[in-house]
């Protein structure tokens, strides 16, 4: 199999997938994306963080917008920020991923899974253990440390496998309208109230022709 | 998609556009004329030679803002857009449907239902404000359009759909003289003519339809459909057949309505047009600007989407219709529901 035949999962897709499988397919299979106020302000926040380069303090090095990938899991993307901390044993630098999020801490596991996927990439790329990272929330302006335990790692690998399956099927699953749709920036493109046979275009046309008659 | 997605028209010779922060800054002869946030824009239309910085071009392409260029005579030259939206799979579905006679007939019929239904609604609206002696003619047009709508349920092949559409269009255009107020002197209409238009009304219709076609092409491309492969309109080299298909339902409520309101309110007068020696009639520069401003305003007007049951604007409508067509082609919707003017 040539390299071009392989499908890769974007790190950002994991978050979409955990929110809604249809959203993930709309973005990554159908390639629909739409910028609204939320994604624009998120992007601006990221642009400030994303500036490639690094700054240094004693025993610490920070790199931004770091390209990451795992050949084993076929997942790749960019980390907002990776801090490299001098190993206590003096054996080199230990990577510590930090993901920047607009807003406040959310109930779901999506942010933690995305961060853990970055850690899995870093482990493979550097050949070291990455036991911990952090999420930075814009509104709270606070960091929350995340431990990459066995359970989180498993959930992350499961999510990556599920996203591979979505990309392989190349179908956009039909989803019935749910409360989470109200908070979804893709709702106007998804039209959850229309699909899944909830509205009939045929009936609409027939009614229209009757009314005009 | 609650915001009206705007078009920035460039009409002044020597306009320069550059990016400052998240805004487009418009400068004419070193004078700052306007500043527009990028996220409010859907497209930039250059109707004259304009100068865009590479940085602005990059931001437009990244944000999915189309930039189109027209030649000095108003001829469409190019539309620059970023990575195509949508997916090759959707385009394959579109091509398969276009090759499938039964599906093409069903979609074409729906498009013509939209066209005739909205034309009829427009004529009925106009009748309300019309002088008594013109009301009869408009009622007659509405009646004929109803008849053609009913006949559509019985057509079986594409030629019949197209034939019926042609007859209905002729009947509809026959009502145009009755749509003019007495005060609108010098706007005689004896049928639709184009390439080139030979009177002011036809000049405005051609200009308006050209703008609408570009809006529809942009909306279709935005959801990943190929604007060149249509159903009602056959493929022709260089023709945006699907954009022409999509604009059918918007001709009357958007362009025709705009043209008659400009004329009937006296915003444009016969003196706003010039006739070339060979007989072509064109809008003078100021008239073109008046028309563009009015077109932009018409796109901001709110309207209810009958099928989706939500409020939108005329400017957003082609985008919603493109989405619904894509949903139908993908098999998520049992037909194409055209936009219904109420």
TrEMBL record, chain A:
Pfam families: Cas_Cas4. Its cofactor is [4Fe-4S] cluster; iron-sulfur cluster; Mg(2+); Mn(2+). Keywords: Antiviral defense, Exonuclease, Hydrolase, Iron, Iron-sulfur, Manganese, Metal-binding, Nuclease. Its EC number is 3.1.12.1. Signal peptide: none annotated. It is an enzyme of class 3 (hydrolase). GO terms for molecular function: exonuclease activity; iron-sulfur cluster binding; metal ion binding. GO terms for biological process: defense response to virus. Gene3D superfamilies: 3.90.320.10. The keyword Metal-binding applies. InterPro entries: Cas4_exonuclease, CRISPR-assoc_prot_Cas4, Dna2/Cas4_DUF83, PDDEXK-like_dom_sf. CRISPR (clustered regularly interspaced short palindromic repeat) is an adaptive immune system that provides protection against mobile genetic elements (viruses, transposable elements and conjugative plasmids). CRISPR clusters contain sequences complementary to antecedent mobile elements and target invading nucleic acids. CRISPR clusters are transcribed and processed into CRISPR RNA (crRNA). This is CRISPR-associated exonuclease Cas4.
From TrEMBL, chain B:
GO terms for molecular function: DNA binding; DNA endonuclease activity; hydrolase activity; metal ion binding. Its EC number is 3.1.-.-. Its cofactor is Mg(2+); Mn(2+). This is CRISPR-associated endonuclease Cas1. It is an enzyme of class 3 (hydrolase). The keyword Transmembrane does not apply. HAMAP family: Cas1. Homodimer, forms a heterotetramer with a Cas2 homodimer. Belongs to the CRISPR-associated endonuclease Cas1 family. GO terms for biological process: defense response to virus; maintenance of CRISPR repeat elements. CRISPR (clustered regularly interspaced short palindromic repeat), is an adaptive immune system that provides protection against mobile genetic elements (viruses, transposable elements and conjugative plasmids). CRISPR clusters contain spacers, sequences complementary to antecedent mobile elements, and target invading nucleic acids. CRISPR clusters are transcribed and processed into CRISPR RNA (crRNA). Acts as a dsDNA endonuclease. Involved in the integration of spacer DNA into the CRISPR cassette. Mn(2+) binds at residues 165, 233, 248. InterPro entries: Cas1, CRISPR-assoc_Cas1, CRISPR-assoc_Cas1_C, CRISPR-assoc_Cas1_DVULG, CRISPR-assoc_Cas1_N. It comes from Myxococcus xanthus. It holds the Pfam family Cas_Cas1. Keywords: Antiviral defense, DNA-binding, Endonuclease, Hydrolase, Magnesium, Manganese, Metal-binding, Nuclease.
